Amino acid sequence: MIKVMLVDDQKLIVDGLKLIIELEEDMSVIHTALNGQEALRCVQSEMPDVVLMDVRMPVMNGVECTKALIELNSSLKIIIVTTFDDDEFIIDALSNGACGYLLKNINGEKIVQSIRDAFSGNLLIDGVIAQKLAMHALGTPMKKVENKDIVLSDRERQVALLMVQGYSSKQISQKLHLSIGTVKNYVSNIYSEIGVNERGQAIVKLIELGF
Question: What angle do CA 43, 45, 47 make, to 5 degrees?
Fold first, then answer.
């Protein structure tokens, strides 16, 4: 059973998401919160597996809450939910450990599949949107950055490029005709080389490096 927490200051959205999620046999909503501070109080009793987190909330926003939750449990999977109005919030959230994002107009089927993907570690992050967010946060058009301290093999570069384009590890294995275990080893090597430990952080860093 996947334990889910919903954090959003709009109760209508929380209630709607809860209804959709609890129709699924393999997941349950264990906490709901209207802001980040309330979410931190909730996890003192039981830690969820996956969190759907709004970014714009009173008291404590989603970026601050994401950072605090990851500090409590680095394996927690946090999906940012946004209307896509505040690009810099999403970049900050990814950099602080969020594993992906959803738009609020997404359909119910995609929501529950994204929760499963996040739980299994294979959340699909849209590379085009991630690049747009990175460009906005940097304030200038993206330029290819050569960093002599970053050394990736040709195969690792192929994997990195597909990660930025939004492919999951399973999809990368199919596209490159590699075993899933081999792909995960490449991903782990990439994380180590660029100094991150989360897919969201990796995508932001790889974009900054020119991928």
Answer: 45
- How big is the chain by its Cα radius of gyration, in Å? 17
- Using a pLDDT cut of 70, give the percent of the chain over it: 84
CA atoms in the 13 A half-sphere facing the CB of 187: 26
Q: Say which amino acid occupies 4.
A: V
Distance of CA 74 to the CA centre of its chain: 13
Give yes or no for residue 12 having a pLDDT over 80. yes
Q: Which CATH architecture has domain 2-123?
A: 3-Layer(aba) Sandwich (3.40)
Model pTM score: 0.69
**CATH 1.10.3720.10 for domain 140-208:** no
- Does 77 score more than 70 pLDDT? yes
